[in-house]
Amino acid sequence: MRGAKVYFFLYEKIFLCKILRNILYKIFLIFARMLINQISKLKKAKNAIILAHYYTLPEVQDIADFVGDSLVLSKQAAVTQADIILFAGVHFMAETAKILSPQKKILIPDLNAGCSLADSCPAEELEKFLKNYPEHKVLSYINCSAKVKTLSDIIVTSGNALKIVNALPKDEKIVFTPDRNLGAYINKETGREMALWNGACHVHDQLTAEEIYKLKATYPKAKVLAHPECKATVLEVADFIGSTAAMLQFTKNDDAIAYIVATETGILYEMQKQNPTKQFYVVNNPITCSCNNCEYMKLNTLEKIYNALQTESPEIILEDELIKKAVYPIQKMFDY
Ligand code: SF4
Predict the structure, then answer these.
(1) What separation in Å is there between the alpha carbon of 190 and the centre of ligand 1?
(2) Helix-strand-coil percent breakdown of the chain, rounded to 5?
(3) Angstrom distances, CA of residue 38 to CA of 63, 213, 315
(4) For ligand 1, which residues put their CB under 6 angstroms from it?
(5) Each residue of 99-111: pLDDT tens digit?
(6) Domains and their CATH numbers in the chain
(7) 157-186: per-residue pLDDT in tens?
C-alpha cells in the first residue's frame, strides 16, 4: 500500500514536470517567433544580412541568410551588397568580415564570443617566434586574430589548407600557425616539415579515440568523420577527415546509414536536415561527458541578434592600417 502511494506520488510529479516542460517550451516558441519576425523586419529595414557558422544554435542557423564554415562565410562577406553584416559566429570571423568589407558595418551579437584557438596565438609572441624562421613563409589558419593575419603570408582554412600547401614549391620553408593538430595533419598528408606553432582548439583537442571506440561498440556500422583540428590519435581512427563543409558533403554522397562525428555538435543539425534518414552520433567531451559544444559559438542567441540589429552594436572596429595589412594574406588565399 505504501509502495503504491510512493508510485502515484512520483508519477504525479513526473507528469506535472512534463506538463510544465511542455508549457515552457510553448512559451519559448511564442517568444522565438516574435523575435524572428522582429529580426526579419530589422534586416529588411537596414539592408542587413546574417551569416551564421555551422556551430551556432539551430534556431540561429534557421534565420541566417547564409550558413557555412569559415571559407564559405568569408567569401560571402567579401561579395555581399548588404550595408550591415551580422556575424553569428566568433570574434575572429567577424574581424575577417570587416577586413574583407571595411566599408560595411560588421556586428557581432556578443563580444565575448572569442576562440580558444585564436587566443592560443598572441601576435606579440608569434612575432618573437618568427624571428627564428626568417626565411619561412607564414601560413596561418583563418582561426587567428587580425594582428596574427598581418604577420602571415597566406591564410588557409581547413577546407583549402592541403590544396594551398601542395601548390607551394616543394622546397618552400613554412611556418604554420596557430593549430598544431591541423599543422601536423598537413605535414603528414603532404610530406612537408612545416614548423608548427603550439596552439589548439579546446573543443577538438579534448576529443579522444577512446570515446570513439565506445560509440563504435554500440554503433559498429557507423562511419567515423573527424575534423583535422582533432589530435592525430583521433584522426587515425577516422574513415573521413575534412572541414565541416567537407564532412557535410561526404554524408550526402556516401551510402552509410550512420556516422560518428568528431567535431563541434552544431554541425549535426545541418547533417540531419540534409540526411533525414541517416543517424548521427557526436563524440562526447570525455571530461564533462556531455556534448562537444563550443561555448563561444553558443553565445549567439536570437535575443542578442535582435539587440545587435536594433542598436547596431557591438560593432567590429579595426584600424585602417591593420585592415590594409591583414587583407593581403586573405586575398592570397582566394588566389588559390
Ligand atoms: S570550436 Fe574551437 S576553433 Fe571553433 S570557434 Fe570554438 S574554440 Fe574556436
Answers:
(1) 25
(2) 50, 15, 35
(3) 11, 46, 20
(4) 55, 90, 115-117, 143, 201-203, 264, 294, 296-297
(5) 999 999 999 999 9
(6) 2-113+299-311 (3.40.50.10800), 116-202 (3.40.50.10800), 207-291 (3.40.50.10800)
(7) 999 999 999 999 999 999 999 999 999 999
